[in-house]
């Protein structure tokens, strides 16, 4: 029987990448077929409400020190790459790619053609080629399917191709990598190569990195952010690093969600890169997060490292035996209200989120555009100490621009663009602490999400404008008099202990900001901590 046009197109699409002698290739299958393959391949388990439950193995989060960009593939606009500034030479990349090609021979592969930033005028077709059916389903869940837009998948060359070999491991002494894991961008060849990790977040974050490179010369500001809109068509932008609460606070039953993580913002509008959400779901409470709780167990959703009773197939979100970074990937359409696909007008309000495990930051405070630039460049977050030692302290983390491992240009470029937008549109800006209050983790208490939502609602409605404010004596932001964090500090007999903790955090901020001092205006530097 002669080849069909479709078969020829598929073979050419694979062979030009050097992928040949394959057992079989499954292209753009419907969701139920991905389920069938994943279950038959023993890649995961089916939960009682329809989610696919999978395990990542050794790596259950990003491997930041294993991201590379290929020498000689850079252009003028891509002069900074965050954690992608680790480089591999062209020969090293080609040698590793050849080893991956050899590894793929004789295996079955899965392919998903996706659209990123659909219906925005900046849409880009991305192709994922992977070993596992569930990783292809992940891409199908997280990004837009051409068929959803009434488009045919014609196997033309995509803007970027991701070759994903999660079960192939590099040999550092041979391949020039830091470890057995690698996430490599080759912008001029429009190829990304991922191996040695099954964590699906690497696919998602690589797509964002790809978009920052493809849009580097456009008027689009890429944002690691959530966006929603109220009944009056007023848009709110939530900025924050991973784990700061963007998904939880933006998933509001009274507002429509455009997206919870990756967006672009041009001169007039904000648009989503994705069609799905990738939420952290450790200890997810059905009463507090009913929409996310239901969506994460929806058919077509994927649960990574979430606990499950394998006999009854019941999900246990409190089970963090494998990792605290348990994840759910689900389509935005699984939420009761969504504004996707589409574009929203410039935001009226920007909310910067920070999970402060030191318990120092006010519950909510007002920021000037210059202060937003400062804290946006920091991308501050923190987590409780890993040790149970008596004197163990929280650990501060910094992700410039709330996602610098994924950016194409120097972070100061993005901060200046953001600051200009805030001033031009006269956007009201808030900082919300989603971490601890009254003292550091282990001493103080975690912020109650219902209280945080109440404060957020009051800020968005204008109710907080009626309060009197004071300047934080150490950090400089404007905080309501009624929400001075010193009033809830655990050691009320020694208020100086709060001042000491605030000064310690200020010193940490200054050290983290030091690399940016020469790249931003003096008024941004001066708006930081006063100590």
The shape is globular
Structural category is alpha/beta
Tell me the total number of β-strands: 30
Fraction of residues in helix:
25-40%
- Strand content range: 15-25%
Number of separate helices = 13
Molecular structure report:
26% of the residues lie in helices and 24% in strands. It has 13 helices and 30 strands. The strands form 7 sheets. Strands 11, 12, 13, 14, 15, 21, 22, 23 and 26 form a 9-stranded mixed sheet that branches. An 8-stranded mixed sheet has the order 1-6-7-8-10-9-4-5, with helices on both faces. Helix 2 (31-40) runs antiparallel to helix 4 (133-142) and helix 9 (369-378) packs antiparallel against helix 10 (411-425). Mean pLDDT is 90; it is low at 74-78.
List keywords for this structure.
single chain, 531 residues, alpha/beta, nine-stranded mixed β-sheet, eight-stranded mixed β-sheet, 13 helices
Question: How is this fold's topology laid out?
Answer:
Blueprint: H1 5-15, E1 24-27, H2 31-40, E2 44-46, E3 52-54, E4 67-70, E5 86-88, H3 90-104, E6 108-116, E7 124-130, H4 133-142, E8 160-165, H5 172-175, E9 182-186, E10 191-195, H6 201-214, E11 221-229, E12 235-239, H7 246-250, E13 256-259, E14 262-265, E15 269-272, E16 276-280, H8 290-295, E17 302-304, E18 307-309, E19 314-316, E20 327-331, E21 343-345, E22 349-354, E23 364-366, H9 369-378, E24 380-383, E25 395-398, H10 411-425, E26 428-433, E27 436-437, E28 445-446, H11 449-461, E29 469-471, E30 478-480, H12 496-513, H13 522-526
Parallel strand pairs: 1-6, 3-17, 4-5, 4-9, 7-8, 8-10, 12-22, 22-26
Antiparallel strand pairs: 2-3, 6-7, 9-10, 11-12, 11-13, 11-14, 14-15, 15-21, 16-20, 17-20, 18-19, 23-26, 24-25, 27-28, 29-30
Helix pairs in contact: 2-4, 9-10
